[in-house]
Amino acid sequence: MSIRKEKIIFFERHLMDFFQKAGRSELPWRKKHISAYEVWVSEIMLQQTQVSRVVGYYERFLERFPTVESLAQATWEEFLPCYQGLGYYARGRNMLRAARMIVDQYDGRFPRDTETLRKIPGVGPYTAAAIMSFAYGGKHLAWDTNLRRVIGRFFFGSRTAMIDEAYLEERFTVARKKMNAALMDFGSALCTARPKCTACPLRLRCIYAREKGRHEAGKAQKRTPKGDWSSAEAVIILHDRHCIYYSSLQTKYAPFVLPATYNTRAGIKAYFEKRYGLSLAVRPPHERRIDRGHPRIFVRAQILLGSPVFRAFPSENIRGRGV
């Protein structure tokens, strides 16, 4: 792979011009001096979650847990109110595990190298690179979906292109902290899943724009069956971190079936709270179908708080039952 220097210069100049004019400098984690802990909190919360949703959670979370030491001392019951609503609760549990590990093994200081950072629960290559870049000024690109999409399209014509990360990182000259932020914002604003090529300042030398995206195959969207689903029963697949599945019956595994009056996410939460004293995280329906003549929606839900009184089945014992 060989990329001409002038193309790198064109890319950096126009990207930085965009960032200066339209970068999201107002985001609370974009402040000039930011700690590794603050970067880590923001990056964990931003995983698979929209920026607009995270901002409020991030600020409230840091008010309640301003340091990694304060977080390490928290119980799950104390932690949950500051996190609940973001979803993906495994990452929330990993935050508590990680905070305790950092306090116990690293004297409350986040490591300053990527290999050690990746030993922390919930910290992968991207999060480690983001901490090194934003908190410590390291020469690392945080290769998330936005970065791969922008760089892949501009230099190779597709967001799924194979990229020699080390080769490119050696050739970029802009400070990595600024480059990471600019690429994230550019990918969020212009080079989206459906790119806004006509408004893109990179389009004159972008391979994707020149070839009209022909090397980037789209995925077929799964269609929801047509019909009125307001009268559908809700089939609830209730679990604890996908390790244990709870049954509505004591003799064999069976999911919970709720009447149509409880077939919304709010209704499902209210039903289990009122009847069993359980707090649930409820996912959007993953399937809708006519089952034995009845319209049904299928929903996965996870127990967050409370003591279930149901029979529990290990996940390997119920495979093939639609879970």
Write the layout of secondary structure elements.
Layout: H1 5-22, H2 36-46, H3 51-64, H4 68-72, H5 76-83, H6 89-106, H7 114-117, H8 125-134, H9 145-156, H10 165-171, H11 176-189, H12 207-210, E1 233-240, E2 244-247, E3 256-258, H13 265-276, E4 279-282, E5 287-291, E6 294-305, E7 311-314
Helix pairs in contact: 1-11, 2-3, 2-8, 9-11
Structure overview:
There is one protein chain. With 323 residues, the chain is an alpha+beta fold. 42% of the residues lie in helices and 12% in strands. It has two domains: 206 residues, Endonuclease III, domain 1 (Orthogonal Bundle), CATH 1.10.340.30; 85 residues, Nucleoside Triphosphate Pyrophosphohydrolase (Alpha-Beta Complex). The protein is globular and about 70 Å long. The protein starts with a helix and ends in a 9-residue tail after the last strand. The relative contact order is 0.10.
Work out the count of structural domains: 2
List low-pLDDT spans. Answer: none
Helix content: 40-55%
Sheet with most strands = 7 strands, mixed
Question: What is the count of DSSP helices, taking H or I runs of 4+ residues?
Answer: 13
Distance, first to last CA: 44 Å
The radius of gyration is 23 Å
Number of strands: 7
Mean pLDDT: 91
Which outline best applies?
globular
**What is the CATH class of the largest domain?**
Mainly Alpha
Sketch the topology as an H/E string, one letter per element: HHHHHHHHHHHHEEEHEEEE
Look at the structure and name the CATH superfamily of the largest domain: Hypothetical protein, domain 2
